[in-house]
Design goal:
This protein is of the alpha+beta class. The chain contains nine helices and four strands. A four-stranded antiparallel β-sheet has the order 1-2-3-4, with no helix packed on it. Strand 1 and strand 2 form a beta hairpin. Helix 4 packs antiparallel against helix 5, helix 4 packs antiparallel against helix 7 and helix 4 packs antiparallel against helix 9. This is TolC family protein.
């Protein structure tokens, strides 16, 4: 099989990919929207928040009365012998007795050292914690999806660059073959050109494999058909207006991880209040309405019926529990101290992460601008080299060097833009204002 035929088959495959105009163009906004609807982790976090929301109620906190209904039907058949005060004896077999009771009963704790109010506030804080955890799950997943998306954009650009260098390598093979035919080049020059073309084809196939696998990865993150084909936008645009002081202020106010630690501290405070409430008496009231009926074949009364209300109140107070109350309060205070330490630690970690990522962001922007200039220079150098090679005034190795310099400059430029975009995504994710 000739070189041209092999190359035509390969370029036909590339051309199939290049017919991207017929494929769906997936924007990053559409990818984020799909993820918010489909992603399994986000769905789980939403369900967890719904559970927390359902738990926020006075009844869950123990502030409302408990009302129950009861029904009892007892029957017995007995053999009895009774000796009365007057000495008479009654001896009966198979005596039937029955009682039937039903009614409603209410019990309401009206005071428990204000523990129920602290519990209600804790339920509200738990809901806020669920909201912070949902936001963190969304930011984390959206950041991951954006990174994968822009990695695809970068890979798409590299495929385009490799496609261009394949064309140049093919022209070089044809030119070397023509020069060899007319006796102006050696067979070695033709073989070197063919080896370089084969190397470029191998690199293209590796890049295609990575591109397709990354598409599968993005489809998995979007929780949709893994075989669904699509294209991404052709260019990466980096927000170069981020300011460090504004980012630090946003992190302190909006970062969901830091917010979660602050909520955990508030929950620890409320748990301490509930423990301290055990030092106070617990007061409850009861009420009910009961209907009762009983029958007996033996005794002074053979039947009895009653109905009516009942009411009362009670109180309990822990006087001594083996000093467990003191120990529980001390443990709760230590837990509160740990919550305060966790806040300080989280603040320091986030501040460090923002500052180091911001420095990386600035470096990547600088490199992005530098590599853009390098690519333009490498392109101009390649154009000049191609013309010189065409007229036979430079050696093959100089041509290949210029070609590799150009493709490497393109790769470095696209990678610099991608890395700058990743830094931007991380900074906005930390600040809690990632576009979702």
């Amino acid at each position: 099989m000739g070189v041209k035929h092999v190359l035509n088959i390969f370029l036909f495959a590339i051309g199939g990919m290049a017919l991207g105009s017929a494929q769906e163009i997936l924007t990053v906004e559409e990818a984020v929207k799909i993820a918010l609807e489909n992603n399994y982790q986000i769905k789980t976090a939403k369900n967890d928040l719904q559970i927390d929301e359902l738990g926020v109620s006075p009844g869950q906190a123990g502030m409302l009365p408990q009302l129950g209904a009861n029904l009892t039907d007892n029957n017995s058949v007995q053999s009895l012998t009774q000796v009365r005060n007057d000495g008479t004896v009654q001896d009966r077999n198979n005596v039937k007795n029955s009682s039937f009771n039903y009614g409603v009963a209410l019990e309401w704790t009206v005071f428990d050292g204000l523990s129920m109010f602290a519990n209600y506030e804790q339920l509200k804080e738990t809901q806020k914690l669920g909201e912070a955890e949902l936001k963190q799950a969304i930011l984390s997943k959206v950041g991951e999806i954006m990174t994968t998306y822009y990695d695809l954009v970068q890979q798409q650009q590299q495929l385009s660059a490799l496609d261009s260098t394949l064309t140049i390598s093919q022209q070089r093979v044809e030119l070397a073959h023509n020069r060899f035919t007319i006796g102006k080049a050696s067979k070695l020059e033709v073989l070197n050109a063919q080896v370089d073309l084969n190397t470029d084809q191998t690199q293209m196939q590796r890049q295609l494999e990575l591109y397709k696998n990354t598409k599968i990865q993005l489809n998995e993150q979007l929780a949709r058909d893994l075989k669904l084909d699509f294209k991404v936008i052709p260019e990466i645009f980096v927000d170069q207006s981020l300011d460090l002081e504004e980012l630090e202020a946003l992190v302190a106010a909006e970062n969901p991880q830091l917010l979660a630690e602050k909520i955990n501290k508030r929950i620890s405070e409320l748990e301490l209040k509930q423990i301290k409430a055990a030092r106070y008496p617990s007061i409850f009231v009861t009420s009910g309405y009961t209907i009762a009926s009983s029958k007996s074949e033996l005794g002074f009364a053979t039947s009895s019926d009653s109905k009516g209300f009942s009411y009362g109140f009670g109180a309990s107070l822990n006087l001594f529990d083996g000093f467990n109350q003191n120990r529980n309060e001390k443990k709760s205070k230590v837990a509160l101290q740990n919550a305060e330490i966790a806040i300080s630690q989280q603040e320091q970690e986030l501040t460090s992460m923002v500052n180091t990522t911001y420095q990386t962001y600035l470096t990547n922007i600088s490199l992005m601008e530098l590599e853009e200039k390098n690519e333009a220079i490498a392109k101009e150098n390649l154009d000049i080299t191609v013309e010189k090679y065409r007229i036979g005034i430079i050696p093959t190795i100089e041509f290949r060097t210029a070609q590799l310099n150009y493709i490497n400059a393109q790769v470095r430029h696209s990678n610099a833009k991608f890395q700058a975009k990743v830094s931007e995504i991380i900074l906005k994710q930390l600040a809690g204002n990632l576009d979702i």
